[in-house]
Amino acid sequence: MNAKALQLGLVVTLLTLAQSGASQAPSLSHVPAPRIPSFTGNRLPAPGEAGTMSRLSDGIRGLWIDQGSQWFGVNGERLNIREFGATGAGTVDDTLAIQTAINAARPGDAIIFPNGTYLVTGLTVNKRITLMGWGGATLKANSSSRGSTLLAINQGADETLLVGLRFAGNDLMRAIDVDSAQRIVISSNRFDNHFWGQTLRLRSAHLSRIHDNFFEWEGKQGPDGGADANVIVSLWQSDRVEVHRNLLAGLNLITDPTRAQRGIFSQLGNGVSVVGNVLKHQIASTQQTGTPIAVWAAVGTPKFGGLIANNHIDGGYGNQIYVKNQIYGVVISGNIVTNANGGGGSAALVCADQADNCVVTNNAVYGSSNEGDGVNIRAQTGAAPASCSVQGNTIQATARNGISVEGVRHRVANNIVRNSGLNQIIVQAKSDAVQIYDNILEGGATRIADLGTNTTFRNNGGLTPFGFLLENAAGSQLVRIDPTGATTFQNTVFVRQGSSTQVNQLVGTAAVNLTPASTTVTTRQTLASYSLPANSLSAPLKGLRITAVATTAANSNSKSFGLAFGATTCATQTVPVNGGTMRLEATVFKRGPDTQECAGLSTTSTGVLNQTYAMPSENDTGSTAIAVWGQTPSMTGDLTFRSLWIEFIN
After folding, report:
1. Are strands 123-125 and 468-471 parallel, antiparallel or unpaired?
2. CB 3.0-4.6 Å disulfide test: which of 113, 431, 538, 551 passes with 452?
3. Which residues have C-beta within 8 Å of that of residue 60, sequence separation ≥ 6?
4. Is 132 part of a structural domain of the chain?
5. Which pairing describes strands 62-66 and 71-74: parallel, antiparallel, or unpaired?
């Protein structure tokens, strides 16, 4: 007879005896009320009088029945493992007692684990139940079999809930293995170190939730990811699983630098959500391998969607967030990565090997060592991703590149990248049609390096003056511009590599000069200039738009203001503007070999207009000086240059 049947039989017997006594009594009013003694847990009498009932007023309150050998609680749908003989003393194995309670439970029942330490060699759940810990109840691994599982949740146990338990490892067992059970909830549990392989493994556990748990890091060697790998949370072929608000703390030094560790690792799952987790690692000076958060598919088995957001990773090893192998449309957003530690080729945020349409947005990366990058879109063992967006990120002081992209049709925009060791942004070889625009870039050896083809740059600048360098795949310079003084340089460059020569086609803002300069002589004087690189106007109808502004002294003296393209004046004005402004605008287009056409318009704050038309003949293959000049014949200082803006058009 099982425990439930025995419990029901005792209750029915007691009720029958009570009814029998009542039928023999002359009046119910003369029957004394039954008295059930009340005890505290540590004063409950020793069992031995079967059928006796007692009440507990503390601990596990409720009605209890003496079965002769032990007390049994009448607690409805809640089964207490102590009722089945579990001791919680931490000195004897409680596996049989706990498994008996699990077997006795009906679907929907709850198994209660009172405070204590329960040694367990392996438990199995095959039905929908709740395992609930009270007061720090601990399940401690007690098996000597390497790779065994402390708690297995199998097919048929859909919607099982684990809450409030503490799992303690012994270097040999994994904590929880969910296999083909769906909608599992693992919440508010604690997992201590020294689990083997995977602390928590879910296989084909769709729509499950893992949230608000505490994991103490440092697992042991196991099979996931290689012979020397271990994973804290492992998801295998599990769709739309949520891993939210967990804390993974690496409190122990990792002495084996060849070990690959992964914190949260999803493989072959659609729509996995990893949000709001904190992963704190032991910071080490030696190179380590591993990944705090990884979401992978497999080439040939594509998966779709996923969200990695609002996580904080500190001191992690290798690639910090790693999306790989034909998983499309994953969003990496709002994460904070600090003190990253990895070997060459690693990065804080990575989309690799056909992880197309990856979105990396609004993340913050601060600091890395051992050659780490900030963001890396790349081919690692397969083809590079396509059509990824890297936008709105803040990246500071990475050891190598701030942002590195490889592949086609990527967009890198609105990022702030500062003080990376090599390039702030690099477009790698084999890249095509990458757009780089509206970024703020400062510090480092090189601001932007382009090894790709058909790369477009627009409005990338910094808070301080900086140079610009374009290199081809062989490392030869294509364009190098080094502004001086207080100039803030903004540029846009479109680079097209031919089979034998490189042709630079400049599109967008080329230079802005905001350094004031006043006339110091009464003759014509150059106040600002820019050297247009050779072949900038590479084909007919390629052109420039040039704008210059000056202010005048408060007098009626004559002032002349002009703009020249090479040896030809394209816009000019001579008027006695009294304490006002003078503005020059000119457009220059290529008409044919070594032939240009310019049209100019000059205006003043007093409403005077002047138009100019000319045909320069500057050499296409040589640089061309663009100069702004002034002349104040009556008095020096009557005219002050204020700004020059040169924009490439068409």
Report:
1. unpaired
2. 431
3. 41, 73, 75, 80, 82, 112, 114
4. yes
5. antiparallel
Domain for residue 197, yes or no?
no
Q: Is residue 174 part of a domain?
A: yes
Residue 579: CATH number of its domain: 2.60.120
Q: For residue 225, what are its two tokens?
A: 């990811």
| SS3 state of residue 524 | coil
The neighbouring-strand residues paired with 643 are: 549
Which tens digit of pLDDT belongs to each residue from 632-645? 999 999 999 999 99
The burial class, CB within 10 Å (0-12 / 13-18 / 19+), for 34 is exposed
347-362 b/e with 16+ CB inside 10 Å = b?
A: bbbbbbbbbbbbbbbb
Last residue of a domain, one of 158, 188, 218: 188
Tokens of 512: 């802005």
Q: Does residue 52 fall inside a structural domain?
A: no
pLDDT digits (tens, 9 = 90+) for 93-115: 999 999 998 998 889 999 999 99
CA dihedral of 253, 259, 260, 262, whole degrees rounded to 10: -40
pLDDT digits (tens, 9 = 90+) for 531-555: 988 888 877 878 899 999 999 999 9
- The pLDDT tens digits of the residues spanning 390-432 come to 999 999 988 889 999 999 999 999 999 998 888 899 999 889 9
Domain that holds residue 553: 514-649
3-state secondary structure of 252: coil
Boundary of a domain, candidates 188, 217, 238? 188
